[in-house]
Amino acid sequence: MPPRFTPAQLEAARDRLVPDVVADGLRVLFCGINPGLMTAATGHHFARPGNRFWPVLHLSGFTPRLLKPSEQDELPSYGLGITNVVARASARADELSAEEYREGGRLLAAKVERLRPRWLAVVGVTAYRAAFDDRKAQVGPQDRVIGRTRLWVLPNPSGLNAHWTAATMAEEFARLRVAAAD
């Protein structure tokens, strides 16, 4: 059961930074938009109840069992990691400015050059478009590379993204899993 926080405790987490879960040479570095307040309050990525990241990661075959957000440090043992386009926590992604996305894209590219994952998977096509100034990007593999790292755009696992079900998201995540196995 995730911890319960008062609205004041969640608000106190605004602008807090959440450490990346990374290692050199990962198969896939997943990249969220930015930490939500629940993530910032717990220190665990994709911690908000209703976020489908962890169930979809398992349904797609990336992890052998459903991990809890508090078990995020197990990801590197599967060749996986997590970072964000924008580091600061906010209640909603629409609180971020276009400049924050662009700067986040520049910092993310530098991080990818340093860590050299096989794939960078940005969860959220809108965030990808803003961070990399690619207004026509669609979900799926991208032509862009950063060094030798290939890029893939995945659907945003937020419960607010009603266009995608957990099952259809898992299919897209599984396409990436297969590509990352090569």
Terminal-residue CA separation: 37 Å
Count of β-strands: 5
CATH class reads Alpha Beta
Count of individual domains: 1
Strand order of the largest sheet: 2-1-3-5-4
**Gyration radius over CA:** 15 Å
Low-confidence stretches: none
Helix/strand-derived category reads alpha/beta
> What do the pLDDT scores average to?
93
Helix content: 25-40%
- CATH architecture grouping: 3-Layer(aba) Sandwich
Name the overall outline.
Answer: globular
- Provide the CATH topology: Uracil-DNA Glycosylase, subunit E
CATH H-level homologous superfamily name: Uracil-DNA glycosylase-like domain
Main sheet characteristics? 5 strands, mixed
How large is the share of residues in beta strands? 15-25%
Quick overview:
With 182 residues, the chain is an alpha/beta fold. It has helices at residues 7-12, 37-42, 53-59, 98-115, 125-132, 166-181; strands at residues 28-32, 80-84, 119-123, 140-146, 149-154.
Question: Would you write up a description of this structure?
Answer:
Helix 3 packs across helix 6 and helix 4 (98-115) packs across helix 5. The chain has 182 residues and is α/β, with parallel strands linked by helices. The protein has six helices and five strands, in the order αβααβαβαββα. The mean pLDDT is 93. It has helices at residues 7-12, 37-42, 53-59, 98-115, 125-132, 166-181, and strands at residues 28-32, 80-84, 119-123, 140-146, 149-154. The N and C termini lie far apart (37 Å). The chain has a single domain (29-181), classed as Uracil-DNA Glycosylase, subunit E, CATH 3.40.470.10. The longest helix has 18 residues, at 98-115. The radius of gyration is 15 Å and the shape is globular. A five-stranded mixed β-sheet has the order 2-1-3-5-4, sandwiched between helices.
